[in-house]
Design a protein that fits this description.
Blueprint: H1 7-12, H2 18-36, H3 39-47, H4 51-78, H5 85-101, H6 107-117, H7 123-159, H8 167-198, H9 200-208, H10 213-238, H11 245-250, H12 252-257, H13 270-278, H14 286-303, H15 307-324
Helix pairs in contact: 2-13, 3-14, 4-5, 4-7, 4-9, 4-10, 4-14, 5-6, 5-15, 6-7, 7-9, 7-10, 10-14, 13-14
Length: 325
């Protein structure tokens, strides 16, 4: 949940077994989680999905995609890259879909870089397109990390008195381990990205710190993260496991943060394991937590399906060009 100009090459250089390993790891964690929490209970929750909360969760996903596309368009414009609104929305749907179904979690963003820089070509334009995508993603992830940090600091104060004494340190230890794993993942990619990051200073200033940019970036990223949390809370309501406001604001960000770990495809499995471990802090059953996470993943995937229309339009246009040639 971090592309750069080297991403396409990096994707090509991926070890051929890595995508299979990520898919297998996610499925293994998901299967183990469902087994540990009693899969029959999860199945019963999923069989009784309420359509209205599910529809509202899908609506929240649309808000997330649309506001993210606006944030990307704003960021690209600050870097001198004109991006029509309709194209920004269409490309963001496509990127969201690809990020969820392809290993690595950034394949869709690499496609955004390529497709938004191909018209005029040139190394400088490609670098600008990559910077816009990186900074747009960074804006949202900083806010999500801030929300997760607030959860680490405040959840023990809110829920600690209602829990046996041993649970609070276990939850904090799990969050700390997650942060360490995330740091290791980023450090591993640091060598490839060092040269690119060195060029980001001016772009960072333009996109984040000049002429009203801080307000736009903060407001849009808060809206996007709020849509994430609302979608998850509505997914919980859809399976008869309503989340309180405190759980949605303090605990769900920690669950979603687990999706940044590059050990599954689209966060499947890892997200459900994190939900089963973290959401019971607020009194939610582990079965309910897993069911809510599964419905959230389903809503996110279905909500990105308009990206298929972009692929279809591309395929039709390509066939027409071939027929003309």
């Amino acid at each position: 949940m971090n592309p750069g100009p080297t991403l396409p090459g990096a994707l090509r250089r991926l070890h051929p077994f890595l995508p299979v390993a990520q898919l297998a790891a996610g499925l293994l964690v998901l299967a183990a989680t469902v087994r540990l929490v009693d899969g029959s209970g999860v199945a019963r929750r999923l069989a009784g999905i309420e359509p209205v909360p599910l529809a509202l969760a899908l609506l929240a996903v649309q808000v997330q995609v649309l506001v993210s596309a606006l944030r990307w368009r704003f960021t690209a414009g600050r870097l001198g890259q004109a991006l029509p609104l309709g194209r920004a929305v269409a490309e963001y749907y496509l990127a969201s879909l690809l990020n969820q179904v392809l290993p690595g979690g950034v394949a869709g963003d690499a496609v955004r870089v390529l497709r938004s820089s191909r018209e005029r070509g040139g190394e400088r334009r490609t670098a600008r397109a990559a910077q816009a995508v990186v900074l747009e993603r960074l804006s949202g992830q900083v806010v999500l990390l801030g929300a997760a940090l607030a959860g680490v600091l405040l959840a023990p104060l809110v829920y600690g008195r209602d829990l046996p004494g041993r649970w609070t340190p276990l939850v904090l230890a799990g969050v700390l381990l997650l942060a360490v794993l995330l740091g290791l993942a980023l450090t591993r990619a640091r060598g490839r990205a060092a040269g690119f990051i060195a060029t980001m200073g001016p772009a960072l200033g333009e996109a984040f710190f000049r002429r009203g940019a801080p307000l736009v970036q903060l407001a849009s990223s808060l809206a996007v993260v709020g849509a994430y949390l609302a979608a998850f809370a509505l997914a919980g309501a859809a399976v008869g496991a309503p989340l309180g406001l405190g759980a949605a604001l303090l605990l769900v960000p920690l669950v979603l943060l687990s999706m940044l770990l590059p050990v599954s495809v689209g966060g499947w499995g890892v997200r459900e394991g994190a939900a089963a471990a973290i959401l019971p802090v607020a009194g939610l059953g582990a079965q309910e937590a897993v069911a809510a996470s599964l419905v959230y993943g389903l809503a996110s995937l279905l909500g990105a399906m308009p990206g298929l229309l972009v692929l279809l339009r591309f395929a039709v246009a390509r066939r027409r060009r071939r027929a003309t040639a």
